[in-house]
Q: What sequence folds into this?
């Protein structure tokens, strides 16, 4: 079953604009991760934020985590055509918590950057 | 460091057959997890192996099995293939077990069942 729910399902913006994707989850977590996937290929790890962190940055990426609302957001600033991909949030809580069920992924946001 | 490799990259099988997929983790990583990705169900956890032991298993039928060797390479096997098994199968390696650490994914094996 899906733990995370990304919103929106699809997003199309112009190159140079910022893109924001949201993720909501259901159970308690130890951490939340974001991954990128280009057209049917493997996933690339972007950033991991632990449950006791509220915000984390990595280059043009900014991730926030609100454990009280069980939600996270991924912001990509100054988007580029190469950012076109699907973005997934993943939690380690799974159904029972504690990392017992591997990573549980949301259905993803498909991001299209128009040149 | 070489990344996670998966073989074969593409596979076409017939219903009722069985298939074995292989995954070689990043050197030094002892955890290997397998995921199935389909358009309808998205990414779903199959199982994780750590130091040759299955650590946990997702909600999949017993037709799906796996193993891990002493060099951390892992294989997954699907017996009696069904059309619904058509999917992208991804393996991921991690230095430590569980979902608390970033995982490094391979390019996947695209399985088509006809």
A:
């Amino acid at each position: 079953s899906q733990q995370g729910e990304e919103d929106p399902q699809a997003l199309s913006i112009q190159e140079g604009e910022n893109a924001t994707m949201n993720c909501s989850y259901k159970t308690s977590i130890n951490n939340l991760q974001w991954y990128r996937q280009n057209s049917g290929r493997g996933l690339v790890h972007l950033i991991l934020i632990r449950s006791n962190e509220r915000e984390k940055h990595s280059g043009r990426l900014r991730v926030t985590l609100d454990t009280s609302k069980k939600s996270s957001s991924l912001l990509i600033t100054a988007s580029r055509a190469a950012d076109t991909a699907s973005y997934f949030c993943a939690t380690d809580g799974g159904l029972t918590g504690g990392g017992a069920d591997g990573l549980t992924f949301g259905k993803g946001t498909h991001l299209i950057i128009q040149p | 460091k070489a990344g996670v490799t998966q073989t074969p990259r593409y596979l076409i099988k017939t219903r009722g057959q069985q298939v074995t997929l292989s995954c070689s983790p990043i050197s030094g990583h002892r955890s290997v997890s397998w995921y199935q990705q389909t358009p309808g169900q998205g990414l779903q956890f199959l199982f994780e192996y750590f130091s040759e032991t299955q650590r946990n298993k997702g909600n999949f039928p017993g037709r799906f099995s796996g193993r891990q060797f002493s060099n951390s390479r892992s294989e997954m096997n699907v017996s009696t293939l069904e059309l619904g098994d058509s999917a992208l199968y991804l393996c991921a390696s991690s230095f430590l077990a569980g979902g608390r650490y970033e995982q490094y994914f391979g390019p996947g094996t695209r399985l088509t069942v006809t």
